[in-house]
Amino acid sequence: MRMWYIILIVTILITIIGFLYLGHQIGKFQLVQHLSYQSSKLKFNSGYLIVFLVFCLLCWSFNLTNAVVCLFYFSMVWMACDLIFLIIAYLGKFQFQTYYAGICALMLGTLLLSLGWYQAHHVWQTEYTIYTDKDISNLKIVFLADAHIGTTFDGTEFSQYIQKIQENHTDAVFIIGDFVDDNTSKADMLAATKALSSLKTKFGTYFVFGNHDKGYYDSTYRGFSKSDLINELQKNNVKVLEDSVVALNDQIYLIGRKDAGHDKKSSHRLSMTTLAKQIEPDKFSIVLDHQPNDYENQQKAGVDLVLSGHTHGGQLWPLTKIGEWIKANDKTYGYEKRENTHFIVTSGISSWAIKFKTGTKSEFVIVNIERKN
Fold it and tell me: Are 175 and 304 contained in the same domain?
């Protein structure tokens, strides 16, 4: 929860500072100056009114969260442009007659947010290959996390990505949490789970819960419960794992963990050591764990591969590493190896409330597991 308190405080500060700064700077445009009211006793900068109206429009078009994101990026870009043009004017020993810094800020801010929108709404395919000394046949898997059905695509649109995944002809598909959240409608949940039934793989499709799947509110809020989700997943040939160990074949075992929740020190789920003891050391083990915050125990348990999501790849630059800075996560994005354990964190196939990704991109991940030599 500490991370969310920090994010809340930072968000409030960004909103206040951004509003004041942008309102003042927009007031420097000649057109805005003509709209401003000035007298010997009263001066009103129309720039503040313009920022307020645009902010309200963004709240109406998106939501409050995304309006704050837009405000943050325009403020950040505007400050950078003001600084650059200030340095140019100082070195050239002249003053700009036109507010070029503001023009550049408007263009660059719009470009940056457009890119962030595209990276959130377009899904890439990312591929890794890892090698093992263990006696296994080569394995090709796909995993995805953080679909948050209904954010950047609905349940019907999700089927298009399932089709792309199917085209890779993988041996297994893993869904690693936050498939749905509190804003997912029952209709979208049903359409998305039905789409999973079209997956045809050698070893099947497996699911573990994330922190949003169960819902933070009463089941009446979104129209379905955790049990309803489980029933629909199972109805569509998806195996739900909660602190479960299953064999894909006699060489490869799968460990599906319960989500860590907010209190990572709680004992509501089995330890990594307890789960790993159910697998013989010479077998290859794959751990599905939504939150990447148990690396030390997973490494000590000697598992071979850990797959996670949850971080959204950092979502927004320059805040991408905040989860690691405050020790909420062991890794934000990508591949890492600690001794004999491989770790991969995906940025997610979609996003939660924020509809922009400026620090990463949406993806599903292919992992090739190959025996050395």
Answer: yes
Cβ-based neighbours of 145, under 8 Å, separated by 6 or more:
175, 176, 177, 178, 210, 290, 308, 309, 310, 346, 348, 349
Which structural domain, as residue segments, surrounds residue 83? 2-119
Domain endpoint, select from 119, 153, 182: 119
Whether residue 76 sits in one domain with residue 40: yes
The residue among 103, 119, 135 that closes a domain is 119
List the beta bridge partners of residue 371: 132
Percent of the chain with pLDDT over 70: 94
Of the candidates 112, 47, 45, 48, which has an alpha carbon nearest to the alpha carbon of residue 74?
112
- Tell me what the mean pLDDT of segment 155-172 comes to: 95
Residues 294 and 346 in one domain: yes
Q: Count CB atoms within 10 A of the CB of residue 324.
A: 17
Strands 205-208 and 172-176, by their bridges, are: parallel
Q: Which amino acid is at 210?
A: G
Q: Who has greater pLDDT, 24 or 303?
A: 303
**Same domain, yes or no, for 208 and 319?**
yes
Number of domains in the chain: 2
- pLDDT above 80 (res 7): no
Two tokens, residue 294: 């148990």
Average pLDDT of span 75-94: 93
Residue predicted with more confidence, 85 or 266 = 85
**Which CATH number is 325's domain given?**
3.60.21.10
Long-range contacts of 12-20 (CB under 8 A, 24+ apart): 14/68, 14/71, 14/72, 14/75, 15/68, 15/71, 17/75, 18/71, 18/72, 18/74, 18/75, 19/48, 19/51, 19/52, 19/55, 19/71
Higher pLDDT, 232 or 17: 232
132 lies in the same domain as 110: no
pLDDT one-digit tens code per residue, 262-306: 555 555 899 999 999 999 999 999 999 999 999 999 999 999 999
Contact by Cβ (8 Å): 116, 232:
no
Per the model's pLDDT, the better-predicted residue between 136 and 373 turns out to be 136
